[in-house]
Amino acid sequence: MCDTRTALRLATLAACTALAADLGAQPPAATPDRAAVLRAARELMVKARYCGLVTLDDAGQPQARVVDAFEPEADFTIWIATHPATRKVQEIRADARVTLLYVSGAEGYVTLIGQARLVDDPAEKARRWKADWAAFYKDANRGSDYQLIRVAPRRLEVVSYAHGVLNDPATWKPVGVELP
Predict the structure, then answer these.
(1) Cα separation, 109 vs 19, whole angstroms
(2) Staple partner for 48: which of 68, 102, 164, 169, CB 3.0–4.6 Å?
(3) What torsion, rounded to 10 degrees, do the Cα atoms 64, 72, 13, 166 define?
(4) pLDDT tens profile 67-111
């Protein structure tokens, strides 16, 4: 039986693989080097604009939702803002393991697996603010209704047709990179 995370990844992978077959894409002769994989991942993450955040509820059931994350930092740390009363905050308090899924149309996708941490530091909150969010938070980044989530990456998985970073044609396994 597939959990939500697996089902989402399989559906995305199947769609991307079908598109590659339609376009006549062939798998690369060798796995791209780490730097190329990271460049492809960063580009797709920035183009995607939104991503899916998957947490685990108290029964261990994956819970997915769309979030407006900040662009990845140099080390692929991801910052997300939300209201502290949301389910995602409660779920992260109980289990910090999270997955982010970025899909950039037919160009490919990035899965980031990591550990989340809730951050209340006023300086970080001031640094991580988008003016577009003013309608959602009563005192911008200064209010108690503004919570930051910092995701420290552990692993990236990438499929990018433009960069030649393709999944294995037999197993559909994407190219993966371990992160510190």
Answers:
(1) 13
(2) 102
(3) -170
(4) 999 999 999 999 999 999 999 999 999 999 999 999 998 999 999
